[in-house]
Amino acid sequence: MTASSPPGCPMSGHTQSLTRHTEQPTNGARTDLIRAQGYEETRALLKEATLTQAGFLAKLAGQPQGGIRPPVLYMQGEEHTEMRRATARYFTPTAVNSYGPMIAALADELIGELHAAGELNLDDLSLRLAVQVASTVVGLTDSRLPGMEKRIEAFVTGNMDSEPGARVKASPLRDTLMGGAVGLFFMLDVKPAIQARRKAPQDDLISYLLERDYSDQEILTECITYATAGMITTREFITLAAYQMLQRPELRAEYVHGTEKERHAILHELLRLDPVVTMLYRRADQDTQVDGKAVPAGSTFALNIQTANADPTVMGEDAEQLCPHRTLPRGVQPQGLAFGDGPHRCPGAFLAIKESDMFLRRLLIWNDLEIVAHPAVTRNEIVKGYELRGLRLRVGAKGKRPQAARV
Ligand code: HEM
User: Which Pfam family, an example, fits this chain (predicted)?
Assistant: First the structure.
């Protein structure tokens, strides 16, 4: 399957991936991991329902003891299908559009804070936005103390590696810190939300889980899943997209002046080039077949999403360049596999793009917005993705009234 890319992308700026990295064998990496080659093979493996989740510390987090139900990310089969079917209503375009006024108000508030302070770190603002938006969907809205975003950040802090088989060094200190972070999140954020919804159910995930008789512990692990899958990822993407556009005035202008469809196309293309989660993993628990090929039980696959997304046989010869108007083969999503595919495909994909766009357009419209400090771009081996920290922005240089760009 070959995409016919238009000769010479009409998009300006020669934007390339910011975070592309050569895959390094991680600490104690397994030599028997099967590395998928290219977009088609990667997608076929993701779509194969019999393969199970092997990433995101599945061995630790995906097999809770004592008959406890695992979070959606690690569920399989009918139980998983039923959970996805029942929770899909929180993520439909209609539901997401109904969050529009809340997202707009929050984005205005955060950008107002930037104006008041003069300069702030964008990665702090994007974390607050992503956490508050996803919390509304989940129902984490009754916290006893502010600062939930910092409590959530703690879940992906530390030098663990989630690649299946990677050596996890025993660290009593890390275990204590993680236990403390989970305990605080439960006491300050999850428990009060459960109590409030037991009294008055709402139209959110926690209320639904209570309806299904989920225990406090099961609700806690589901909330941690949403916190890392939905909040941490969106935060990184917003920071990356802002940074890419701030460095390319023409791209930024095309984004800010574009229609919503055109803006979303730019965001999808930025995400294709820099997928937040670069590696996904799957395992065959029983003998199976993928695309007509036999896969013996015990096979574990490493799926490099960034490489798959830059496959020239699908994305076109200019696959490593940004071109939101590229012609894609039927069935290929503009963001490639950045939201996964198959049964575990990200339910929050539309929400993530919508909230990113609402915030970024409000931010990038300010003509006098400038970079004060470039971010450090590092890797997080728990999430298997990039982190941008310290992107400091200034708006409304001293003595001048802030000016919005003319659109
Ligand atoms: C730019 C932002 C985001 C990115 C890049 C992203 C990426 C992904 C990817 C790649 C997966 C598939 C994991 C796998 O197949 O192993 C996934 C699953 C998931 N995402 Fe997202 N996500 C984003 C935002 C969100 C948001 C906003 C939410 C919810 C509020 C969310 C909730 C989830 C959940 C619950 C799953 C697990 C689904 C399942 O296993 O059935 N994500 N995400």
Answer: p450
- Residue 13 covered by a domain: no
CA of 222 to the centre of ligand 1 (A): 13
Which among 233, 235, 239, 281 is the best mutation to test ligand 1's pocket, defined by most ligand atoms within 8 Å of the CB?
233
CB-based contact 244:362 (threshold 8 Å): no
Report yes or no: 246 and 371 within 8 Å, Cβ to Cβ: yes
CA 352/CA 355 separation, integer angstroms = 5
Q: How many domains does the chain have?
A: 1
Q: Are 185 and 219 in contact (CB under 8 A)?
A: no
Alpha-carbon separation of residue 255 from 189, 250, 251, 264 (angstroms): 36, 9, 6, 9
Q: Would residue 196 count as lying in a domain?
A: yes
Q: Which atom of ligand 1 is nearest to the CA of 355?
A: 27
Does 39 map to a domain?
no
- CA 197 / ligand 1 centre spacing (Å): 25
- Residue 154: strand, helix, or coil: helix
Q: Domain range holding 223?
A: 71-275+346-394
Residue among 173, 179, 136, 128 nearest 153 (CA): 128
Strand 34-35 to 119-121 pairing? unpaired
pLDDT tens for each residue of the chain, 407 residues long? 444 434 567 665 577 889 886 665 555 566 689 999 899 999 999 999 999 999 877 777 666 667 788 999 999 999 999 999 999 999 999 999 999 999 999 999 999 999 999 999 999 999 999 999 999 999 999 999 999 999 999 888 877 888 888 776 667 777 777 778 899 999 999 999 999 999 999 999 999 999 999 999 999 999 999 998 999 999 999 999 999 999 999 999 999 999 999 999 999 999 999 999 999 999 999 999 998 899 999 999 999 999 999 999 999 999 999 999 899 999 999 999 999 999 999 999 999 999 999 999 999 999 999 999 999 999 998 889 999 999 999 998 754 554 554 43
Kindly report the CATH number assigned to the domain that includes residue 249: 1.10.630.10
Residue with tokens 């008789």: 213
Please name the residue whose Cα sits nearest to atom 24 of ligand 1. Answer: 230
The torsion angles phi and psi of 51, rounded to 5 degrees, stand at: -75, 145
User: Does a structural domain hold residue 115?
Assistant: yes
